[in-house]
Structure to design on (324 residues):
């Protein structure tokens, strides 16, 4: 048992300015606002401007998280960027973020678990902090999925958008933290399902970036069962009950998945933070974006027990229980 707790000090989100509505998409591919809204709950998504890279979105979200924590870049000694759409094959986008924030100490690296990336990154940072190795981490989920979509494939291009979200995770002694901090974690992967959601390119296979491919209805089926089991496992890890959760902050892929998981867990729908209508599936950015929105509008407050969860390509999936 560690003598430390990893406490969320600040949260920030950033969505690029350009908005693409369902109506706009209906002029690009054979789809309708009615189909997209009914099947997914998505009404619009944000698209990064030309020349606006994943690191730019990440930096904007990181600055907001630092502001909300009352901290500056000099207070950070660890940066983890969860992304499947890095600026470059290498170096890590986290090092670009580090430089853009003017941070010259500590470590920075990327983490690749696609849509589950933010949950995996929180778990990773928590372990570093618990070991006493770093003091304050910027944990960022940032994506420009618009750059890897096949804009002629209606079954995928309507689902995703660009954005970034960040938290400042701080090492505190158990005494300082009280009951706050990361309480329980559950992470899983199963590579047998990697063909359900993948990108058909990469440096070592095709030497191209490739496009996102997904068998959506199969991912959907895996999502509901695997997430529900993961939430129960994270609660068990924390020694808490699912009914103790104040706010459910899920990966924002599809409103129907959010509702199905909440129903299976017996969670009230009004405890579920849903921002999917506003920005679609932003992969690793979606959980911190939803968290930032619910803190900003006053729903999530210090002391609340929140549950974050996600499932994505790999398949990878996981959950974490955090006392704010
Ligand atoms: O973030 C990573 C995790 N990803 C997810 O969680 C995504 C999980 N999957 C989903 O959200 C849903 O499966 C989708 C939203 C992708 C699709 O919804 P669905 O209810 O599973 O529909 P479906 O794939 O079974 O397709 C139903 C029909 C098909 O037509 P037919 O074969 O029944 O004639 C599709 O061709 O809907 C058609 N379709 C569309 N129609 C209008 C697929 N995309 C579209 C579209 N507009 N954009």
């Amino acid at each position: 048992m560690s003598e430390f707790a990893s406490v969320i000090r600040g949260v920030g989100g950033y969505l690029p300015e350009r908005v693409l509505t369902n109506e706009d998409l209906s002029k690009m591919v054979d789809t309708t606002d009615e189909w997209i809204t009914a099947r997914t709950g998505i009404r619009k998504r944000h698209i990064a401007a030309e020349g606006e890279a994943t690191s730019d979105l990440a930096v904007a979200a990181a600055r907001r998280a630092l502001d909300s924590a009352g901290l500056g870049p000099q207070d950070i000694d660890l940066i983890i960027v969860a992304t499947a759409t890095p600026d470059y094959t290498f170096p890590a986008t986290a090092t670009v973020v580090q430089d853009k924030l003017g941070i010259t100490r500590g470590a920075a690296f990327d983490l690749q678990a696609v849509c589950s990336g933010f949950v995996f990154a929180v778990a990773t940072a928590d372990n570093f902090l618990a070991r006493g190795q770093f003091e304050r981490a910027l944990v960022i989920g940032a994506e420009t999925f618009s750059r890897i979509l096949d804009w002629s494939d209606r079954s995928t291009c309507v689902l995703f958008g660009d954005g970034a979200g960040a938290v400042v995770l701080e090492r505190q002694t158990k005494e300082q933290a009280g009951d706050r901090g990361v309480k329980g974690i559950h992470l899983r992967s199963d590579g047998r399902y990697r063909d359900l959601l993948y990108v058909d390119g990469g440096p070592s296979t095709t030497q191209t970036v490739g496009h996102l491919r997904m068998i959506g209805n199969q991912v959907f089926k895996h999502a509901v069962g695997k997430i529900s089991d993961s939430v129960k496992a994270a609660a068990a890890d924390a020694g808490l009950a699912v009914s103790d959760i104040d706010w459910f902050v899920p990966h924002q892929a599809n409103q129907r998945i959010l509702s199905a998981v909440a129903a299976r867990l017996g969670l009230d729908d009004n405890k579920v933070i849903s921002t999917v209508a506003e920005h679609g599936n932003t992969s690793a950015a979606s959980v911190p974006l939803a968290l930032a929105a619910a803190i900003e509008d006053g729903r999530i407050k210090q002391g609340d027990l929140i549950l974050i969860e996600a499932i994505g390509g790999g398949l990878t999936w996981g959950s974490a229980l955090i006392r704010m």
